[in-house]
């Protein structure tokens, strides 16, 4: 997906440059990051009974109303659009109790960015999320990346004491890369992990909320998403 001003920039710059390569180089230097707007895409809820959705301008809040987990063949809540091809997808994500005062109290309660194969009979997805890892460890909060192939999940949790992170998920062909940094910062991105995952060109891309808590009451939990950016072909 190219920004709509790309053709105009090419026309303007071409007359001022000696070659096509010069034009491309100038465009890459001058073109700002693609502006993201929720209204530019069609959104759907997967497992809609699991969570409520509130969109306020360019800020999204997902609130848990039924306990459910993303693990192996189990599925939690996902708010997504359909995306084709490579992408560079990022957002500031805060996973907390509904009051926003602390991380969720139960282990394995996360929210963040996800890319999922919608056509497979088994679960195939990648995600990078923030929230509560193992609540018997200190600190309890941190971030996680997860790779699920044919309903078998492999994940790593880093409990750094924060339930708010800038998260980034990048696709280049079948290479998926997971990044994080301090929330709402201009720090360099920290590459957490990269993996080859054989997925179709068209994926469900969006945001996830889940908890492994299976108690009798719904966990007090929400995911707040802001500063979303998407760059794609």
UniProtKB/TrEMBL annotation:
This is Uncharacterized protein. It comes from Reichenbachiella ulvae.
